[in-house]
Structure to design on (377 residues):
């Protein structure tokens, strides 16, 4: 198949899922065309059967807000036409599904261009639910040829928020279990780059938006660091980074916290850690936790959204109410001090990732979803 993919190319879960999906589809012989304002950050530009089409948004003195959605729709229709795409797949409803809808209509006289919208999270729970965007988001969801969501929680939330009765297929986030894995040849050396042999290594991975509650990460780690030698790796960047740095400094733990910025290759770093901290206010799935699980790293997180679908409390991780920093800290200390329990949980996390969430299991679900749309046309 020839598949067009649109996503936010910046550091974030929906962009990661879209990019990894494109890479996996191309590896299975499909031709993939990314259409966005920048090359998605996990692409190198050298992948076989993957093409990138930049959307440039011309400015004009009259435009206070340059119309990206229109430029995107134009480019989508051109790429679909020139490269004979079978299907467009947009990630994050706003504004991508509206642009896809326009592109489909622009081409309607000459060809059919079905599009799939994948809902990821705040496109429904925050931005989409905002009255300014709700009617257009609902319209674009209803008009999509196919809609998928990344957890059952998000499927239910979409029906509830938008009152839509259209079928939404749940296709979960996935991870490449062959890449996200402990590697005895390199993992110990990477760990040694960051931590002394006696230090526990905790990690947080996100785009540091308020919803991620990165201050809670620092607070939890401060409690852990009072009890044992420990180090925290903060991976990613975003609006809350500076307040997290300030908090680490005021709690006098900044020498134990490494802010690593937006790393591309987290598959090598994650296996070198012991515990993932994900104390988010909301998480429709929690891709960072899945990537950690695949690397035998359990998560201490919050019992919100789709997280309990991924993490079984007490078996593959530990979940607490949002903001319960003390409970998360105590649980982290207890787990890190009980190496046998930590190992059992780490193994269970890897097994759960392998059983349900490996790319090799999930990508065929997307392929079948595309085929079903093309059959219906
Ligand atoms: O909805 C968002 O916040 C955007 C998105 C992103 O780009 O970071 O994150 C969501 O999509 C991920 C991939 O499907 C999920 O794993 C995240 O749980 C989800 N984030 C939230 O729901 C906050």
């Amino acid at each position: 198949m020839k598949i067009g993919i649109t996503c936010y190319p910046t550091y974030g879960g929906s962009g990661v899922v879209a990019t990894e999906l494109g890479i996996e589809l191309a590896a299975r012989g499909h031709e993939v065309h990314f259409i966005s304002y920048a090359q998605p950050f996990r692409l190198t530009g050298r992948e076989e059967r993957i093409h990138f089409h930049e959307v440039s948004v011309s400015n004009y003195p009259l435009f206070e807000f340059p119309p990206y959605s229109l430029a995107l729709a134009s480019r989508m229709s051109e790429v679909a036409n020139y490269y004979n795409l079978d299907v467009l797949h947009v990630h994050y409803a706003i504004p991508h599904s509206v642009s896809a809808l326009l592109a489909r209509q622009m081409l309607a006289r000459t060809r059919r261009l079905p599009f799939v919208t994948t809902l990821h999270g705040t496109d429904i729970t925050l931005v989409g639910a905002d009255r300014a965007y709700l009617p257009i988001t609902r319209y674009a969801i209803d008009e999509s040829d196919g809609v998928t969501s990344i957890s059952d929680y998000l499927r239910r939330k979409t029906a509830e928020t938008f009152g839509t009765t259209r079928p939404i297929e749940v296709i979960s986030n996935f991870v490449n279990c062959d890449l996200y894995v402990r590697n005895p040849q390199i993992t110990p050396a990477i760990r040694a780059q960051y931590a002394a042999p006696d230090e526990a290594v905790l990690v947080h991975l996100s785009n540091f938006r308020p919803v991620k509650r990165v201050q809670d990460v620092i607070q939890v780690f401060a409690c852990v660091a009072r009890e044992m030698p420990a180090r925290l790796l903060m991976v990613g960047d975003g609006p809350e980074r500076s307040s997290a740095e300030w908090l680490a400094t005021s709690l006098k733990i900044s020498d134990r916290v490494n802010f690593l910025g937006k790393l591309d290759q987290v598959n090598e770093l994650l296996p070198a850690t012991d515990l993932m901290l994900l104390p988010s206010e909301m998480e429709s799935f929690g891709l960072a936790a899945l990537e950690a699980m695949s690397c035998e790293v359990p998560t201490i997180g919050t019992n919100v959204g789709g997280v309990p679908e991924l993490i079984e409390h007490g078996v593959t991780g530990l979940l607490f109410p949002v903001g319960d920093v003390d409970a998360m800290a105590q649980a982290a200390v207890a787990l890190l001090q009980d190496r046998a329990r930590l190992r059992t949980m780490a193994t269970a996390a890897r097994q759960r990732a392998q059983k349900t969430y490996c790319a090799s299991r999930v990508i065929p679900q997307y392929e079948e979803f595309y085929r079903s749309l093309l059959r219906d046309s």
